[in-house]
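Q: Could you fold this chain for me?
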Amino acid sequence: MARSDKVAAVAALTEQFRGSSAVLLTEYRGLTVKQLKKLRRGLGEDASYAVVKNTLATLAAKEVGLDFLESDLNGPTAIAFVTGEPVEAAKTLRDFAKENPALVLKSGAMDGAPLSADAVRKLADLESREVLLAKAAGVLKAKISQAAYAFTALPSKTVRTIDALRDKQEQAA
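A: Sure. Below is the predicted structure, expressed as structure tokens.
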């Protein structure tokens, strides 16, 4: 590559690093073009998967403060730049790696913090944002229902007591 091409490539990678909520590093040695295409489609619109030159990626990572990625930028490396939900991208990579053992999860970064390969797998085990929000809404709804029952319990108990006293007086009379 000519020097000007390298500068442009580093600038493009730097922008991808900056625009990503998470980056996930993988080794793709042994995967076919067809498999890589399938993986890219599986990641969807919220993530892009790019094979990168390690030296250029290292320079771009250092420029955005992700120096810790340098140790894993060796060998054939591809990076998933995640702009959407990191959990979904991590699940896709984990599932694809199960089907295709040639794909190896190396490491990553999320919100500027390093992620080990195990941390990426744990991230993949999390439920999606929508599921977690639905569970939280369910818990809140249950608490609101309990509070509504507690608020209505005393007046209804009072009404039942008054009805019982009225029935008792009618039977006594």
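A (continued): Strands lie at 22-27, 47-51, 77-82, 104-110, 113-116.
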